[in-house]
Design goal:
Number of domains: 2
CATH class of the largest domain: Alpha Beta
Helix content: 25-40%
Distance between the termini: 49 Å
Strand order of the largest sheet: 11-10-9-12-14-22-21-20-17-18
Radius of gyration: 27 Å
Low-confidence stretches: 1-12, 19-27
Largest sheet: 10 strands, mixed
Structural class: alpha/beta
Number of helices: 14
CATH superfamily of the largest domain: Isochorismatase-like
Number of strands: 22
Mean pLDDT: 93
Amino acid sequence: MNAVPHSRLVCAMALLIGALSSASAHAEETLDLTLRSQEQLHDGGRYHAQWHQESWKPAETAIIVCDMWDAHHCLNAVKRGAELTPRMNEVLKKARDQGVLIIHSPSGCMAAYKDHPARIRAMAVTKAASVPKEIANWCHWLPDEEKDKYPIDQSNGGEDDNPIEHAEWAKKLESQGLNPRAPWKKQTDGLTIDSAKDYITDSGTEVWSIQEQHGIKNVILLGVHTNMCVLGRPFGLRRMAENGRNVVLMRDMTDTMYDPRQSPYVSHFTGTDLIVNHIEKHVCPTITSGQILGDGKEFRFAGDDRKNMVIVSAENEYQSDETLPAFAKQFLGQDFRVSYVFADDKDRDQLQGWQAIQDADVLLISVRRRALPEEQLAAIRAHVEASKPIVGIRTASHAFDIHNAKVAEGHAVWPEFDADVWGGSYHNHHSNKTQAYAKVADGAKHPILTGIDHKEFPTGGSLYKTSPLGKNTTLLLTGRIDGLEEVEPVAWTNTTTSGGKAFYTSLGHRDDFANPAFQKLLVDAIYWAAGQQVPSKLLSGEDRAKIWQAKYAQK
């Protein structure tokens, strides 16, 4: 432990006693939090979101503010940090007032605080009797993370600046006498440091000792950058998790060092989402700032204009729980914020993580004959009744119709879903042994058909019997089988009974997802439903990289 002058020590002890007294005044209050994690389903393949409630005592809770520096080598990171700061400061104030311990950890900046009471207080803390072996060191990986491939390529450091602006920013930093690669000197002035209560340290050992002295059991990490410092610092998520702290990430009070010109070539904000998902799977749960502030809001950056798309997969025939996530990862990461809702593999009539439906801008349904709990089906009804767009594939025509079977108590069905939402009338399918073919309907013109070849193509599954269509539908694709003169509608749009936009296709067999014609159809339908411009063609990874390179080349 560093030597501390006696006068400073006396001051620190007085401040500490005051802080402890303040904390005791809040002993009866609780922080009622909703923690989100990603749980692996029992079959070992998929992860689904889980929410659970916890009540924490403020006096047993600490917030660590990670590396919210006054400057950064990445200009866009500086801009996003400035956006985060005002709400983050509100979180700290509210939490502090409730009795939560606040630890400011701007790494490498302790010299700026050598005389600050919050730094003196941290230095005065007696080293804990039991300190984890690696608590002073960076943690690059936890064993559980080896289950998954790391979701983003950050090998270039994650800088997402325009090259010209980045060079100008570096020159400006140099003109101020700062190192353009590491220009930070202190924490941003936009975050208040309470001299009477808070601590300042970037030492894992000091952070641990402070927590031990205060009897801290719960830790909230916020700050930047999630995929680097927030995860890996000695006081970061990995170290806290592996040493038994009940740690969470405040997922909307953070940012990521990710450059969309690197794999998987998705929006910067999607890159952050991918890291948050990785954390929820393998490191710890997450919460939002609105849970501390009590306003129920989740912060989003001004530049994050992605639509919230929720994919609901609950069918056992076509493996859409595998094909749809792969499809979304390949084609939707630029313009959509995608969440998944899967069926519980032990209870087919339960949706895991269904709460995500409540925040959907666009809903994609791949469900077959489920009688859902009333509150879960009500969430889907509410989406439709709010005239929000909805997309369906294959078995979505009979998603909530269980053939007049008995409905369990507390569960509900929606037999009219096909007619109300899709404008269809599914009543069976042709033989699975007969090859079906699809093509653009004669004379059909629609944005969804942009770039789709009008030539007939084979489909992966049987031809559904879906006619006649409702009066508010627009036919896009038809299908046929050999030996049958009649054709069946295969894809169409509809205006729902609530006035919303809907698209449905009876395609969606696993083999269809390998067909570029189907891929383009579904991409176009999603963009159309969301009110986005339909892409002119399917984009490969190389295409997406070029698009991002062109965007970042523009000043």
